[in-house]
Amino acid sequence: MTRLIARRLSDSAIVLLLATVVVFTLLRLLPGDPAMLMLGEHATPQTLANLRASFGLDRPVAVQYGLFLRDAAAGQFGESIRAQRPALGYVLGFFPATLQLATTAVVVTLVVGIGLGVLSAAYRGGVIDALARGLAMLAQSTPNYWLGLMLINVFAVWLHWVPASGRGTPSQLVMPAITLSFVLIGLVLRLTRTEVLDVLRSDYVRTASAKGLGRGAVLFRHVLRNALVPVVTVVGLQLGSLLGGAVVTETVFAWPGIGYLTIQAVETRDYPVLQTIILLAVAAFLLINLAVDLLYAVIDPRIRYE
Fold first, then answer.
1. Same domain, residue pair 71 and 104
2. How many domains does the chain have?
3. 157: pLDDT confidence band, cut at 50, 70 and 90?
4. What is the pTM of this model?
């Protein structure tokens, strides 16, 4: 197990290094000049040149990358062009909002998606199965931005039940969490249903039923645990993506998280902030993948890492 973790961490370090090259190169290919965006088109050439020099944008790209890599190794990711603050601390200030939204959405997804998936498989061909499959199809075909706007119109504008945007109270979390989890619920529901149906055909399940175990005990003690490995994989991947910022949902609800900050950084060509966001997202994704791999052995004792 220790060697597995060490090998995965070393592989992750290589992936992270390659990510710095790709991110740094692609961001420099974006059209637009940060100095021009900050000072406006009426700024004098000398003023623009001075601002570019102050952020090191006048140096060759290779030199800029070398300096960035040196600073990143020391835990420094440059200074935000827009906020005039260290980029890492600035980005981390938005992370709690994204973490709150992502974890809430994942918890809702697990409870609803797995619960309905198990019920759908247990009552295959019945009314519950038909309703669950219909919900899954609806969830996976509904765009996030459209659902968010509809929730705002109905529950914030017409009914005045919850605030339309912002963060600070539990009521402001409800609509963003529902919007973010809705598509994931459809995915987890369908996957759980498929895996549970496969496990229900196993010999040991029929044996457990023949021994007199109740339907609930068979489903949750024997079937669900063996069906969870693919579900955990999908949820882990989705959580890694969500921690990188749910751009559309956070923008629709003005939720002050990483996704909302990403849009602002793109608009102002704030290279240090964008680089920091993407690299932190890659790092979170790699760590979550490692955690998911280790969780396999906990869920299924038959899985062993040599």
1. no
2. 2
3. very high
4. 0.81
